[in-house]
Specification:
The chain is α+β, with helices and mostly antiparallel strands. It has four helices and 20 strands. Helices cover 27% and strands 29% of the residues. A hairpin with a 2-residue loop joins strand 1 and strand 2. Helix 2 packs antiparallel against helix 3.
Length: 426
Amino acid sequence: GELEERWGWGRGWWKTGLPLYAIAPSFSTQINGSAVQARSSLQLHFRELKETVIRLLDERSASLLQELNKMEEESIRPLDDCQKLIEHGVNTAEELLQEGEIAVLGDTAEEKLGNFTKKALQIQLDSLPEVPSLVEVACLSVQLDDSFLGFVKERISTHGAIASRAPVQIEELTERPGGILVRWCKDDEDFVPQEYRLQLCKNSAGHFEDAYTGADTEFVVLHVDPNVCYTFRVCARGEGRREWSPWSVPQAALTTLSAHEWITGCEGFSLSSRRDMALRNNSPTCGVLYSKEPTYTSGQTLTFRMEAAGMPDKRDSIGVCVEAQNGCDSLQRDKAVCISPNGAVFVNGKEMTNQLPCVSTGSSVTFDMDVVNFGSTFNDASCFKLRVIISSGNREVVFDWLLDQPCEALYFGCSFVYPGWKVLVF
């Protein structure tokens, strides 16, 4: 209790059943390894931040200087033109004055004076550009926000934080057929999460990829290879924040279960390349699409997710059965348990009183089954029962399904009268 209170070991080491000396080295490895990684990330981040800030400041300074030079050139150009005009007028007046002096002193003074007079009348010596006042002439300056430096200092002083533990941690990894169920939870009571981000890495390659982003605290990662190790980590974004929290402690898991597959060759359905998604096509043939093999066993969770919905019919069905009986148009029959899109639940062809919410696009229907034995032996056919839980939306139906013989695995199936329905199974 003292250790738990002092060090926050809410999931105490004693729950592992191992002595402290046996697992203490792994604790040290995690602490030291995470410190090395955090130190490297910290140094890299601030080095890149420093280089980026310097580059941006240099670019802004160059841009402002370029703008200043352009404005200086544009402001001085009219004054230069005015000065040239005045100098031209002065030079013209000097030339005319020299000609007048020559005309007065020369032998042909009368003729030259006449030419001088005509030329003088053609030149407007009293026409000069108006000289602007100082307030009318540009006076270049630069405007700089004095509070900017203080703002930058404040942001830098609060940028980044060191945490001993992430606010969210992975609490459960469960194998699913062709997938892994990942559940996580808050590890900090004061942290208010807005959304979560889950990543995975195959074979500890070091390259993590996004698997999920949203508000849920669990996600089934599909399309994973059986018997291949995957490493998961999760982080969260706090309420009103833009940055993500530190990553949780990475957790590794694998699945030994092959992915569920629909059987090929059913004329009324088109399958995806992985054969885990079935689309009711426009074929007039209406029948039940079964799984390739009886792969659903007790103790597992079977999920149907509706990727698209068509027009419903009372004969439509999604569920499990003991045998794949060809020629049936629905799972609403003997030795089968199913749900119709309107939420009705059928057991051995009979509709139950309890009803689930209607199935629509985005809905998920889950089946959970466990063996219930009341007889003297497991193979006693008169007492073989399965405890069935069917969940949809925020409701569930629980009942015992009596079978006339023991069954190790079940088929799953679906049937739709009208096209447009698309079902993903996992």
